[in-house]
Design a protein that fits this description.
- The complex is a heterodimer.
- Chain A contains three helices and seven strands, in the order αββαββαβββ.
- Chain A is an alpha+beta fold.
- In chain A, 12% of the residues are buried.
- In chain B, 70% of the residues lie in helices and 0% in strands.
- Chain B contains 15 helices and no strands.
- The radius of gyration of chain B is 21 Å and the shape is globular.
- The chains are: A alpha+beta, B mainly alpha.
- At the A-B interface, helix 1 of A face helix 2 of B.
Chain lengths: 155, 358
């Protein structure tokens, strides 16, 4: 008798689970479509916030960035994508201080692992969502991230 | 309601008045053959488009939308591609059977396609054993699949064909018994009479619960019969590359492809004819005004609309459930569907005997 009961309950629960599955798919049928028709919607395309397109260093209106030139990102980079060149500056009080000279970023070597952004103590760099990175020569992938004549942002 | 018999009789009388009878008959046969073949190809192409589009919607994609507006002529482009493709010669195959197999598959579906009542008066062959004929002819297709698998000299094809054979033998039983339930209820096997009998209410409504259970069982078994959806073990692209048609290319593969989609249409058409009233409009006894409005919709639209609903049910199932294992497949049939079907048939017989239906 127990086996007959098992048979019938198994039949019922099996049927019920099938109906639940069909409910899930019918909901998906009417959901908005996720396909991006890329080259056509290029003007309106909005990438996801956390998409890692390329490394950038944001500058404010006074052409100031936050990078102190500490080199932590360079140390953490797994494959030598970042090279930081520093210079020594003399402040108004007459102290000499290390500052960023050039921040060289090689997009061709980058694996977009995000370690540099995570480890940066002053949040000077971030990943932008711009993804159209193709160029004709490899040299063009090597970029200087700090702008011409930029200085460290005063706290 | 427009009766297509007017057109066919007009052609018939016109031909008979101008030539001897055998010539008129020969021309009519050719005409009917051409019409059926054209409808066969057009319906298959339309179904391929619909399937690709709905499958895309189920997966939150857009689907084909590059060839023509909304990708409407995508399947025609695919057909042209398939026609001009090379047929790759394969070594160590049984040549005769290999070339014969696609024709058998197409022939089987074409034979059953001809016996479908499409609309009022649009019915090529009307046997008094229509359902028996349908069952007999539609199960011929498995012969082609078995031949294709056997003659390809390929283990994948062979496994696919064998699975297909086991599947067909099992599910043929369910199809037969669920249709038998409705034959008991209708009291006839002639498709045109079955449709006429549903003029007031469709069998799925007038046949109480047994008719509904038979409908569901028929859909499941019919789905298995067409080698689609969760029952696509004979193809099983993730394990057998393409199953029985792995070695086929070009137009030969196109035949299998066409037949697969047409089988889907035929299964839906039989379900429509037997359970959903064929081309009969939706009538509620007593509501004269409503019934008259329904009569204004052409019968061919009713038929294809109902087919669309049944095909959509099939697609819905196909894109919901994962593929069954071969033992699960056989267990579903022999341990669940068959006993249920037998009890259902018994209940239906009792209902008809004691007259418990409207």
């Amino acid at each position: 008798m127990g086996s007959l009961k098992n048979y019938i309950t198994g039949f019922g629960t099996g049927l019920w689970s099938l109906l639940i599955g069909m409910k899930v798919t019918i909901i998906n049928l009417f959901r908005p479509k996720v396909t991006q028709q890329y080259p056509e919607n290029r003007d309106t395309l909005v990438m996801f916030d956390r998409f890692r397109g390329e490394l950038v260093m944001p500058h404010n209106a006074n052409n100031e960035h936050k990078c102190t030139g500490c080199g932590i990102c360079q140390t953490n980079c797994p494959n030598g994508t970042i090279i930081i060149k520093t210079k020594t500056e003399t402040t108004e009080e007459g102290k000499s201080k290390k500052a960023l000279d050039t921040y060289i970023y090689d997009l061709g070597k980058c694996t977009f692992c995000n370690l540099c952004v995570i480890t940066c103590p002053s949040k000077a760099i971030e990943f932008s969502t711009k993804f159209e990175n193709s160029v004709f020569t490899r040299e063009k992938l090597v970029r200087t991230l700090n702008q011409e004549g930029s200085t460290l942002e005063k706290k | 309601m427009f009766d297509f018999a007017v057109v066919t009789q007009w052609i018939d009388e016109g031909l008979r008045s101008s030539m001897p009878e055998f010539a008129a008959l020969a021309i009519e046969f050719v005409l009917a053959g051409v019409v059926i073949l054209t409808a066969y190809a057009v319906i298959a192409l339309a179904l391929i488009y619909v399937e690709r589009k709905i499958c895309a919607f189920f997966q939150c994609r857009i689907g084909p939308n590059r060839v023509g507006k909304y990708g409407i002529i995508q399947s025609i482009a695919d057909m042209v591609k398939m026609l001009i493709k090379e047929i790759i010669p394969i070594n160590h195959i049984d040549k005769f059977l290999f070339f014969l197999a696609p024709f058998i598959v197409v022939l089987a579906s074409l034979l059953s396609f001809g016996a479908i009542p499409f609309a009022k008066g649009l019915h090529a062959i009307d046997f008094n054993v229509g359902i028996l004929y349908m069952l007999a002819v539609s199960s011929l297709g498995v012969l082609g699949i078995l031949l294709a698998g056997w003659s390809s000299n390929n283990k994948f094809s062979m496994i696919g064909a064998m699975r297909s054979g086991a599947q067909m033998i099992s599910y043929e039983l369910s199809i037969g018994m669920s249709l038998l339930t409705m034959v008991v209820f209708a009291g006839t096997m002639q498709l045109s009479t079955i449709v006429e009998k549903q003029a007031d209410t469709w069998f799925i409504f007038s046949g109480h619960i047994p008719a509904f259970i038979a409908f569901v069982i028929y859909l499941i078994a019919g789905h298995a019969e067409t080698n689609r959806g969760p029952f696509d073990l004979p193809e099983a692209e993730s394990e057998l590359t393409a199953g029985y048609h792995t070695e086929y290319s070009g137009i030969q593969f196109g035949f299998f492809y066409l037949a697969e989609y047409l089988n889907m249409f035929i299964v839906s058409a039989i379900a429509t004819t037997v359970f959903l009233g064929g081309w009969m409009p939706f009538h509620i006894p007593g509501w004269e005004g409503f019934n008259e409005v329904m009569d204004y919709i052409p019968s061919i639209l009713w038929f294809f609309g109902k087919i669309g609903v049944v095909v959509f049910l099939g697609l819905w199932v196909r894109w919901t459930f994962p593929r069954l294992r071969i033992d699960q497949l056989l267990r579903l049939e022999w341990k669940y569907l068959l006993p249920l079907n037998m009890i259902n048939l018994l209940i239906m017989v009792l209902i008809v005997l004691f007259g418990w239906h409207f």
